[in-house]
């Protein structure tokens, strides 16, 4: 297994651990605050973001008005998206230095 693939597997494992730990702190749905975030297209194909999208589909279905609601705590969402963005930036930097 090459180093790049091993590094991606480690990062994906780290994301899963972060997601699992933070979901324990999810607030009661009645007290839930909603925020709007713009997500880079590059995040959409990442396995961890795909998991959030499946969770959204399971809870709300395909017909959602006024954007997409993802049923997780904002801290989890921000942790997942920022980690994916950092991974993508490192991959982009790594591919330009070769």
Automatic annotation (TrEMBL):
| Keyword terms of this UniProt record | Developmental protein, Growth regulation
- Please state which protein family the record places this protein in: Belongs to the ARG7 family.
| Source superkingdom | Eukaryota
- Please give the organism: Dipteronia sinensis
Q: Which GO terms describe its biological process?
A: response to auxin
Q: What is this protein called?
A: Small auxin up regulated protein
Which Pfam families does this entry report, sorted A to Z? Auxin_inducible
- PANTHER family reported in the protein's UniProt record: SAUR-LIKE AUXIN-RESPONSIVE PROTEIN FAMILY-RELATED
The taxonomic lineage of its organism, from the top, reads: Eukaryota, Viridiplantae, Streptophyta, Embryophyta, Tracheophyta
């Amino acid at each position: 297994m090459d180093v790049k693939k091993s590094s991606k597997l480690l990062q994906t494992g780290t994301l899963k651990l972060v997601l699992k730990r933070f979901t324990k702190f999810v607030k009661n749905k009645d007290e839930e605050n909603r925020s709007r975030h713009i997500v880079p297209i590059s995040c959409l194909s990442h396995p961890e973001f795909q998991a959030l999208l499946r969770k959204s589909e399971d809870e709300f279905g395909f017909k959602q008005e006024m954007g997409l609601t993802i049923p997780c705590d904002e801290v989890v969402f921000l942790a997942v998206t920022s980690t994916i963005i950092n991974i993508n930036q490192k991959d982009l930097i790594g591919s330009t230095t070769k």
